Structures are given as C-alpha cells and as structure tokens.
Amino acid sequence: MTVRNFSLIPSLSDALFSDRFNRMDRLFSQLTGDTPVAATPAYDIRRVDKDRYALAVSVPGWKGSELSIETVGGQLTISGKREEQKETESAENGWLHRGISRADFRLSYTVPEHVKVTGAKLQDGILAVDLYQEIPESEKPRRIPITHGQQAIESQQAIEHQSA
User: Fold this and answer.
1) How far is residue 114's CA from residue 77's CA, in Å, rounded to a whole number?
2) Does the model's pTM come out above 0.70?
3) Which domains does the chain have, with CATH numbers?
4) Of the four listed, 4, 51, 59, 77, which is most buried by Cβ atoms within 10 Å?
C-alpha cells in the first residue's frame, strides 16, 4: 500500500517532472510490489455551507460492495478491494486494453474534531461522502459583556458592602 501526500497548490516543478516521476514510481512499484501512486483515485473536497462538506472520490467501475468507509480516531479511511474475478473472464470478453485502474486502494484523511460522516452514495463512478461539523455549545465562541465606567464602580461597592 502506498501513502500519498496530496498537494493543495501544485507548483511549476510538479508539471515539469510529473512524467519522470510517474515512470520512476511505476519502476519502483514493479520492484517492490506496491501500488503506484498514480493508482490512487482522484478526489475533490468542497464546502457546501457553514457546517457541511462534501468529499467526492472518483471510483469508476467499482461496486458499492467493494468499497468501505471507516472513521477511527480522527481519521476517515476510504478503501477499495476488488472482488475475486475469474482469470478466464477478461480473456473471453475480448479486452484489447484495460486502462481503468483495477488496483485495490486505501485513502486516508485527517478530519477535524467534531466532524461526522452523515452519509455516502455511489453514483456514476463517483463516491460522494457527506460530512457535518457539529461544534458543541460549550466550545463555540461566546461574547463576554464588558461593563463601562460607573457600572463597574457600583458593582465593586456592592461586593465590598457584602463582605463587611
């Protein structure tokens, strides 16, 4: 399994060296038996409103039964494991080229505290995961009133008067 750090802002050097990197990655993957980095599915993260987010993962050709979503200790993990396929099936169906990734994958995201997965839907090769951030009232920011001038003096006198 390969761990991949996702860059939010691609730099110019990424574009210049991406082909060389992909070739080296495939070479090392063949030697080690790991899945190439390019085999991990593409994804989008979008803020829907103040408290809701949407994660979309591109999983063309995957069935719902082959995908799994877990949350454990602040980690959201999405994984795909292909069901066993008969070796003769692909040869009999006349495939000339199979470019759609068939490799098992595992994506892991760190989610902020109080974020919960509220649902997931697989449609048209996109796994849509709904996230909701619910901050408890005790942790929400609150305003503390500030007294001005005479009010502060009156409150001090009342405290002094009570202690005498």
Assistant:
1) 16
2) no
3) 7-39 (no CATH), 41-85+101-136 (2.60.40.790)
4) 59
